[in-house]
Specification:
The chain is of the alpha/beta class. The protein has a domain of 217 residues: Rossmann fold, CATH 3.40.50.1100. It binds pyridoxal-5'-phosphate.
Length: 468
């Protein structure tokens, strides 16, 4: 298996190189050169497998020998060992034909752990084999940074530096990052906004000498390995609900389009998925696109579901590549025009084709709170704001009453206690293994919004490490 760029002008690479590269050198995203098959007998053979065993079966054709089967199996076992549930990604019934897929059992209480725990291990494994080290640098407004830190903590070949805007992330989000005290983890609180943090990171990557000296790298959501690892829970849920004999629908709270793209990939492989609902908050560019076939950029507005506060969903480029029949130059033209004019329009036939599978839905903050209150009243289930949007979308958009509809729970309600309290009058408690989060010691450096200061800090910390 090799990987090709969505823009058609970068060399095809094997899995291990794609994992380390992230973005393709033509600015595109890597995709598999074909979708491996999950035919009916294969799906039948998945019944009764543990989550980590299923993960190895689903991912092996993508990894195609670049990691030995036994190593992959060991990594999958270790990745999911401490998730707080034997099923790893348990299903709970909310209503007749409506299910919640709980993806909040990882160390940072959001679905990103399901891919990140595995990808951190794969990174370390391949780097060690090559005798290399990397310095991961990233900016976070909350969830991603915590998941990346948990995935990289204590790994010999990795140093990780995460910038967050000081005083502008929630206390739970901050503590999930700053209470990790492994020596290779470096939290930096920047006196500035999330955009300032992101600009600092971009400027560091733009400095070629620095990039090469420190081996700068990223584990962001455009990395193919994250999409691949997310395919697994769609297969697990569908098989548990009767695939291949019975088709399933999914509703996905969406921001960067990575999660729902994994569902699309599962369907291309042969998983019987009859419908995908793309759930958005007030930042509803994807919903408007699905309604009209036109994607038109707007300004980002802050909402109760911050991980979905996005206008340009980077992983959408992978779907566009498929919509345009894998024509890389056509994708490049469309994306360049979109960045310039803020607008992208599909041919009517292509749009109709997209709509055979995808529906969109939008909930603003009032609708989100109403969905949280309604679900608590009906089933006693606390939903976080992101999950609530997915559940509301599932109820509003399901096409028939016969096909099981699965809404994805993408964050634990205790990550957003203020919103849950507003909706239900009650504050959800943290899982037992995080019960002492508010007593744990925090460690973070505070730096001004100044590129020179951040570069000097990172360089000094990496040098110290090398000397030790
Ligand atoms: C990241 C995130 C999302 C959005 O997922 P994408 O893959 O970016 O579409 C939704 N909900 C939560 C809680 C998240 O952390």
């Amino acid at each position: 298996m090799r990987y090709i760029s969505t823009r058609g002008a970068a060399p095809a690479l094997p899995f291990d190189d794609v994992l380390l590269a992230g973005l393709a050198e033509d600015g595109g995203l890597y995709v598999p050169e074909f979708w491996p098959s999950l035919d009916a007998p294969t799906l039948e053979s998945f019944h009764g497998l543990a989550y980590d065993e299923l993960a190895v079966r689903v991912m092996a054709p993508f990894i195609a020998g670049t990691i030995a089967d036994a190593d992959l199996a060991a990594m999958a076992k270790a990745a999911y060992r401490d998730f707080g549930h034997h099923a790893t990604a348990p299903l709970r019934q909310l209503d007749t034909g409506l299910w919640l897929l709980d993806l909040t059992r990882g160390p940072t209480l959001a679905f990103k752990d399901y891919a990140m725990q595995l990808v951190g291990r794969m990174f370390d494994h391949i780097l060690k084999r090559r005798g290399r080290r990397v310095t991961i640098v990233g900016a976070t407004s909350g969830d991603t940074g915590a998941a990346a830190i948990e995935a990289c903590r204590g790994r010999a070949a990795i140093d990780i530096f995460i910038l967050h805007p000081r005083g502008r992330v929630s206390e739970v989000q901050r503590r999930l990052m700053t209470t990790v005290t492994d020596r290779n983890v470096h939290n930096i609180a920047i006196d500035g906004t999330f955009d300032d943090c992101q600009d600092l990171v971009k400027a560091m990557f733009a400095d070629r000498a620095l990039r090469e000296r420190l081996g700068l790298s990223a584990v962001n959501s455009i990395n193919w390995a994250r999409v691949m690892a997310q395919i697994v829970y769609y297969v697990a849920a569908a098989v548990a609900l009767g695939a291949p004999a019975r088709a399933v629908a999914f509703s996905v709270p969406t921001g960067n389009f990575g999660n729902v793209l994994a569902a699309y990939g599962a369907r291309r492989m042969g998983l019987p998925i009859s419908q995908l609902v793309v759930a958005s908050n007030a930042n509803d560019i994807l919903h408007r696109f699905l309604e009209t076939g036109r994607m038109k950029m707007g300004a980002v507005v802050p909402t109760l579901s911050p991980s979905m506060d996005i206008q340009v969903s980077s992983n959408f480029e992978r779907l566009l590549f498929e919509i345009l029949d894998r024509d890389g130059p056509a994708v490049a033209r469309a994306i360049v025009a979109f960045r310039k004019d803020g607008c992208l329009t599909l041919e009517p036939s292509a749009w109709r084709e997209v709509r055979t599978l995808f529906d969109g839905h939008r909930e603003d903050d009032a609708g989100t709170l109403a969905a949280m209150a309604a679900e608590y009243g009906a089933s006693g289930e606390f939903l976080d704001p992101h999950t609530a949007i997915g559940v509301a979308a599932a109820r509003a958009r399901r096409r028939d009453a016969v096909t099981p509809m699965v809404a994805l729970a993408t964050a634990h309600p205790a990550k957003f206690p203020d919103a849950v309290e507003r909706a239900t009058g009650l504050r959800p408690s943290l899982p037992a293994r995080l019960a002492d989060l508010f007593e744990r010691e925090e460690r973070a450096a505070t730096l001004p919004n100044d590129l020179g200061a951040v570069k000097a800090f990172v360089t000094a910390r990496v040098a110290l490490k090398g000397a030790a």
